[in-house]
Write a structure and sequence with these properties.
The chain is an alpha/beta fold and 274 residues long. The protein contains six helices and 14 strands. Helix 3 crosses helix 4 (117-133).
């Protein structure tokens, strides 16, 4: 290999690293998309959900990034904010500062959340106190009514776990009316087979970071899911169930993102045409 080519490759590598570490992981993207649902009640047509995930407050979180994300979400004036876990990196001391920052989020129908594996590892007990104290409603294998439409609109959430999704989902849905439209929060998109079987309308998840480091023309290299790249990011459909996997805000393992900007998703429910 010639000296010129070697030098060019080295410079390209340095430039890519500088971009991934210094720029892209600071560069929040707001992704807007419509979710078409059949027979959507008129009260829900145009209903907006701001979705954040995988904050990972801790040593690799950039100063001010969470505050900027909160301000961006509030400027969108969503009807509801959904948070799908891994708010901290894994220490109990991180939970309360993260809860205070996320407590600045505002939405007409509230801020709802489920915990991820990092939150449970850090301290589920502290999390279950700190987030509600800051106005964030935690769903732990539970559901709640949102809008008294016809049919009614409910939100449900499951505690993160790599197994037993069916049992957790059954527990969460045990009090939900049969005809209800259901928004499900789950940290990992691996829940989609069980959600589809249960007739969930829309699942919001995170966990994958969208891959965090992605390859050109290929996408996510690692997804940390059983289902792999089909659920790594964005809006996807499995049968009659939609799922949106948020790329998240923070990072793990490496303080970098490449071809995978930190994301706020703004989803709009719309009535599907037949």
């Amino acid at each position: 290999m010639s000296l010129c080519l070697t030098s060019a490759l080295a410079l390209a590598g340095l430039a890519g690293t500088a971009y991934a570490v210094g720029l892209e992981r600071r560069w929040i993207q707001v992704t807007r998309c419509d979710v078409p649902l059949p027979d959507l009640p008129a009260e829900l047509d145009g209903f907006t959900i701001a979705h954040l995930s995988d904050i990972h407050y801790g040593p690799m979180m950039l100063p001010g990034l969470i505050e900027r994300a909160v301000a961006r979400v509030n400027a969108l004036q969503p009807d509801l904010v959904a948070l799908t876990g891994d708010f901290v990196d894994g220490k109990a001391s991180e939970v309360e500062p993260a809860a205070r920052l996320l407590g600045g989020l505002r939405a007409r129908h509230g801020v709802w959340a489920v915990l991820g594996g990092h939150d449970i590892t850090a301290s589920e007990r502290v999390a279950c106190r700190a987030y509600p104290e800051n106005g964030i409603r935690l769903l732990r294998n539970a559901a709640a009514p949102l809008i008294e439409s016809d049919p009614p609109f409910w939100i449900a959430g499951v505690r993160d776990n790599s197994e037993y999704y069916l049992d957790r989902l059954k527990a969460a849905l045990s009090g939900v009316p049969e005809r209800a439209r259901i928004l499900l929060l789950a940290h990992s998109p691996d829940i989609i087979p069980e959600a589809r079987e249960a007739g969930i309308d829309l699942v919001l998840s995170g966990h994958t970071h969208g891959g965090q480091i992605c390859a050109p023309l290929y996408g996510a290299i690692l997804t940390e899911t059983r289902l792999g790249r089909p659920v790594a990011r964005g809006l996807n459909r499995f049968g009659n169930t939609w799922i949106y996997t948020c790329r998240g805000l923070g990072v793990v393992r490496l303080p970098a993102r490449f071809l995978c900007r930190p994301e706020i998703a703004l989803l709009r429910l719309v009535r599907a045409s037949r």
